[in-house]
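Write out the 3D structure for:
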Amino acid sequence: MALAPQASNSSESNPAEADGNHIDAPELRLFVMALFFIFGGITSLNDVIIPKLKELFTLNYTQAMLVQFCFFTAYLVIGIPGAALVKRIGYMRGAVAGLLTMMAGCLLFIPASQTATYGVFLFALFVLASGVVIVQVVSNPLISLLGKAETAHSRLTFAQAFNSLGTTVFPFFGAILILGSLASISADQLSGAELDAYRTAETQAIVNGYLGLAVALAIVAAVVWMFRNKLQGEKHEPSSLLGGFSLLKRPRFGYGALCIFLYVGAEVAIGSLIVNYLMQAHVMGLQEQAAGKLIGLYWGGAMIGRFIGSAILRMVSPGMVLAFVSAGAISLILISTNTSGTVSGYALLAIGLMNSIMFPTIFTLACEKLGSRAADGSGIINVAIFGGAVIPLLTGVVADATGSLAAALILPAICYAIIAGFGIFARRPA
């Protein structure tokens, strides 16, 4: 199951000509950049609603991390079926399907708020994430195909910068809209009908934000549908639904898929804890909204790093760059956990800069020479993003068991160490 360029004999009959190993359709690159922006921004909003729901439903860290668990479990459940859907209906129609599913997830926040039930919020996030998965299955291999193979690392890194632009912008405004409404009273002071009413009222800010997103997604889906026949030259290699798992037998791809699991887990775990970490008295002692706004620095660092990295990766071995930034992330965790005040806080936020090139570099290193099985690889990679469910949950367990967010950060550090090893392993072309 894959999507690959198809040779064309006539530029008139096939405006998006395939040139050996890529599709010549440069006008679609902006479309793909927009998709990266959208699903990146929506994913980062989890970091904002976690402290909100933690307070409203009086959750411990393990329970609060169920937000990420349910969101990223969609990658495990939908990754392979999503790739099969894209194979069947094509990239553009697949993007529409993903956008509409995301819209449905946003609308589910209405009954979640009205019932004041944590479980319904989690279900809404799962549906929303299912749409994100489908859109991501489309985006990653498509941006790789829309250009020459030798510049795929750079091109995907540049596209990921737009993903980071979304993760920078969305949390800032989300913090103002969602965290800014926290009432002076605490949920643990209420019970019964009063508690339900408080939760309904306070979650309305979440509903309003996601309703706005639903409208925007509907508009984008309509625009994409208008251009559904724009991309030509797609070729689908037949395979079974689970056929892509055979790629895990390839050491380079298997190791790379593991590193995607660990990277996403580490990145999400740190992002999920930032607000509560910065609120600690010995770190920066910030209020919820102020801490929430600083999430943008974490994701903004990733954005800046990806723009810079897209140039560096044209000149330096991607594997060695990956090993270097992984070591940098470990160093920043050690600095943050062994200092206090602004040094501790900004060291943690600076990890975003180290994260910048990790996903696109791991993805392209793992998927080198997959050829017509590119979407197979993308489907498995999307399953591996399930690490965003597992690692944050385990990090929450450690935080609750030790009573220390600093101690919990050892798990992301271990993840980065393994990723550094993959960079060294894959430093040479496949």
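Residues 261 and 387 are 4 Å apart (CA to CA).
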